[in-house]
Amino acid sequence: MLVKRLFFQHIEKCYLSVVYDSGGKQKLTQTVTAIKCNNQTFSVNNNTSIWFAQGKGLFFMKLKNTLLASALLTTATLSAHAATELTPEQAAALKPYDRVVVTGRFNAIGDAVQAVSRKADKDGAASFYVVDTSDYGNGGNWRVTADLYKEDAPKADAPKNRIINGVMELPKDQAVELMPYDTVTVQGFYRSQPEVNDAITKAAKAKGAYAFFIVRQVDANQGGNQRITAYIYKKDAEKRVLQSPDAIPADSEAGRAALAKGGEAAKNVEIPGVATTAAVGSGTGVGRFFETQSSKGGRYTVTLPNGTKVEEVNKVTAAQMVPFDNIQFTGNYGNMTEISYQTAKRAAKKGAKYYHITRQWQERGGNITISADLYK
């Protein structure tokens, strides 16, 4: 007997009557009428049995030989309550009402998230956010920590910026929107980040700065000295004109098609020469390049020995474009810079101007296999 297991969203009132003849052979005498499942209507034939919804559970109507079975199916509604997993940005904007820990053996992060989702459902949460995952007891078990949120979760309190030596420290999301007027650089041996902040703010204050943002902090030598550069801002700093780093490249096939279409589609195409929100101070011309390490703040670009430039697009941008080809290769690569170079080299051979790495996984012997989509 073929069994179809269906999840019913709604069942209208109907009758089912099935009779078996003396030989035990099922014979249909009256069919179910108007059963709605995912906006489709189903009926019963003599090779089909159906799971019916009743209350919060399910029961299977099994018809035995020489038995006339009649069932009255009344209106029932099932809803699948599932807590929603929040993005980091969404979670940061809301206040959780509880923090829970789930432990267990999970094969992948997806399994761990499902376990947290079930816990959130049980606790009546509307959404959740996984804060941390770690090994538990060195036995292969995971310890997953998550915050839970109500449907009407209150907004998170806006963080207050720190004031150090009379100069405000800006977070990146605020600094990127403002036009810096200068930079300050300090170099020395600092035992902690508070010492770094103390030195950089004293230099900023000496230049009359209202606020600062550290754009670069690197080791100056093998002796433990550091070189730190910060953008500094006036209190009435000018707002910058910015665009999303996820915009479609203007000179790509997808970009030209979107511009030709116009309207909302054209708004998703980058504006050449306009900086993105990905890099603080990019494109402002403030500061020396070797200190700020800022160019136009665009995509990661690989320049090949013959001068060809190939750019990497992120997953949001890639989702708005149509690849014309893809590549897959395997090799022993020590870092992401080498992986990007090898990908760009192969992309250029196929005539691509852009690429997006879709997957990379470890092989035996330390080799890595990379697959990427290619775009004109």
Q: What is the level 1 CATH name of the largest domain? A: Alpha Beta
Rg calc: 30 Å
**What would you say the CATH architecture of the largest domain is?**
2-Layer Sandwich
Share of β-strand residues = 25-35%
Uncertain stretches: 1-80, 287-292
Q: What share of the residues lie within helices?
A: 10-25%
Mean pLDDT comes to 73
- Please outline the major beta sheet: 5 strands, mixed
Number of strands: 24
CATH topology-level fold name of the largest domain = Dodecin subunit-like
Q: State the shape.
A: globular
What is the first-to-last residue Cα distance? 53 Å
Helices and strands, with pairings:
Elements: E1 2-4, E2 10-11, E3 14-20, E4 26-30, E5 35-37, E6 40-42, E7 48-54, E8 57-60, E9 69-73, E10 76-77, E11 84-85, H1 88-92, E12 98-104, H2 109-122, E13 127-136, E14 141-149, E15 163-164, E16 167-169, H3 172-175, E17 182-188, H4 193-206, E18 211-219, E19 226-233, H5 253-261, H6 263-266, H7 289-292, E20 300-303, E21 309-312, H8 315-318, E22 325-331, H9 336-349, E23 354-362, E24 368-375
Feature tags:
376 residues; alpha+beta; Dodecin subunit-like; 4 domains; 5-stranded mixed β-sheet; 9 helices; 19% helix; 35% strand; disordered N terminus
